[in-house]
Specification:
The protein is of the alpha+beta class. Helix content is 29%, strand content 30%. The protein is built from two helices and ten strands.
Length: 175
Amino acid sequence: MPMIKFKTLLLSCVLLILILPIQVAFADTGPKPTMEFTFKTDQLDGELTIVSGILYECDQADCSDASPLEELGPQRFTCDALSCRALAYGFAPYHKLEIEFSDEETRESNIFETAGFDSKYTVTVQPNDLLVEAQFRLGILPPTTLAVISCICILVVGVIVVGLIIFLVRRSRSK
């Protein structure tokens, strides 16, 4: 009898192991704030392209404590020939760009603030520096946050409507 229980238990364990998925599950912390930089070169002759860039993060308004955005997992600052983008777990309140261009000039930007969760900026390339200006938009919340807020609102309105119907039905029956 004890041998049958042991075999049953062993067989159950083997079946459980075969049923469980073999792949490892990865967890994510949800949406991350982003920055997109679009460059324009109004005052310069010829087409400039971006060679490399650094996004400095600052806690002080004068950026005296500037440090480059660290590359950690998905967090990074990248550039292609005409634009740059950043993704982070969270951004500091102030920033500064340092971009090297195809004319072998490295230009620094003014100090600018984080403009929202998904920030968009226009960077004007000038002969000696960069001017970063935020593009303000109405959609400052990420789409997933808007979807969650919409679902909660629909749920609350639904509960109120159902509660009102139940109240009116009970009230009419009591009369």
